Amino acid sequence: MSNHSYNSWLKTKKKPELAQLALQFGLQDIAGSKKDDLGIALDTYLSENSSRYLADPELAGYFNSRSKALGSPVKREVMRYEADKPLKVSRRRTTKLSEEITPESDDASPQAASPQAASPQAISTALVETPGRALSQVAARIPLPATPADVALAVDRSTSAVRQRVSSMYEESGITEVSHATRDTLSTVTSVLFCVAAWELWNVRREVLSNIYAFTIPAIQFLGTSDYPVYVPDMFLLLSSSFWSPTLTWIFTSVAVPSFMGYFFNLSATSTPPTRGRLRSNTAEYVVDPLTFSIVKALISFVVYGQGVNFGGLLNDMSIVRLNNAIYGGYKGILTGTAITGLMSIYDAVLRK
With 60 as the cut, is the pLDDT of residue 232 above it? Predict the structure, then answer.
């Protein structure tokens, strides 16, 4: 120990500081020791337990100084040792050899770790145990914050995944097929006729089958709602003439007579042009001509509801008045509906030519 060869970082410490470190690490028999003896003892202890105290921030200066002291000579010895080896030895085998030597170095005695007993194999082991390399491995495990480019790339990937998922869910739901089928069904003159008739029937129902009180939905304080009374149609009116008389009158003027006339005065039955190589077809495009249906409905509605004609008592006068008041706009509303269906039938006939 007379050569005072130990770590330079420990040399910069005072004797009380070295004594405090020795007590902290549990070194025995340090009473009365000189500064150099304490430094050599601490250097030997920390070298043997480098993996244990490598992450201690108080000893960062020691390991940095030790790494610098062992850096250049070790590299030169390792290069000379590698040059003497056969060329067929792969780099991966060398790494594996270093890993196998590392545990042996941890179990070595302080005498075997002295510079005088160092061999090429021991020098390679020292290179593997270099604190600088261990520090770099520890730093590599620390997650670094993402760069703006990484964040933007992650957002783009997430957006693309969400867009693809929504698109696939929309395709699997069948909304497109249902919407196309609904459009094809409603894009006919017959559908328009049914819509107009349904609107009239809704207004007639409120007159001939009035609503009565059924029950009350209580208020929900959480939603801020109040009591809501529920009304349902009075089904007992189905047993009275006040329901059947207006209902049969509406069926007679809006459905029966127009359909009868539209079936026999079917203009589409004789207007289908013959095609090349095929005779004229005797099958009508519509069973009931929509234009004739609309014209007859407009005429009979004007006569019955506008002029009050009951066809010699066939229709009840009170039922005529009730229907005229029940339908939105009276008989003028019915005429408006027939005008719409008549124009639609003409437009459909033009498109078919």
Answer: yes
Containing 214, the helix (H) or strand (E) segment is strand 211-217
- Residues 74-85 as b or e (16 or more Cβ within 10 Å = b): beebbeeeeeee
Q: DSSP letters along 78-89, please?
A: HHHHHHTS-TTS
Report CA 127 to chain centroid distance, whole Å.
52
The predicted pLDDT at position 217 comes to 92
Q: Identify the residue with better confidence: 278 or 223.
A: 223
pLDDT digits (tens, 9 = 90+) for 149-159: 878 888 888 99
Rounded CA-CA distance 134/66 in Å is: 13
Each domain of the chain, given as residue ranges in start order, spans 8-141, 177-208+240-352
Compare 108 and 153 and report the one with higher pLDDT: 153
Return d(Cα 167, Cα 170) in angstroms, integer.
5
Helix axes 331-352 and 189-208, enclosed angle (nearest 10): 170
Does residue 35 contact residue 18 with C-beta atoms inside 8 Å? yes
Separation between Cα atoms, residue 326 and residue 281, nearest integer Å: 44
What gap in Å lies between CA 117 and CA 106, rounded to an integer?
16
Please give the C-alpha separations between residue 287 and each of 259, 274, 290, in angstroms, as whole numbers.
Answer: 9, 19, 9
Other Cβ atoms closer than 10 A to 20: 13
Q: Match 């008389």 to its residue by tokens.
A: 245
